[in-house]
Structure formats: C-alpha cells, structure tokens
Amino acid sequence: HDHFLAAETESRAYKLMNVNHSVSLKYLKLDKLKHTFLYFFHCIFYE
Description:
The protein is mostly helical. It has one domain (1-47).
C-alpha cells in the first residue's frame, strides 16, 4: 500500500512537472515572438 501511494504521489509530481514544463515552453516561445516583433518594429521605424 505504501508503495502504491508513493508511486501515485510520484506520478502526480511528474504530471505537474510536465505541465509546468510545457507552460514555460509556451511562454518561452511567446517571449521569442515578442522579441522578434519588437526587433522588426524597431527596424521598420528606426532605419
């Protein structure tokens, strides 16, 4: 029973980590997009 509980907790933690990972990846991509956009914006208006 203890083993089952430990495995359950571990898989929950793993799922949480996975969710956090994918969320942070999305934010990373958004951040890259934002920087790219700002870069182009800057180029268009300041060149």
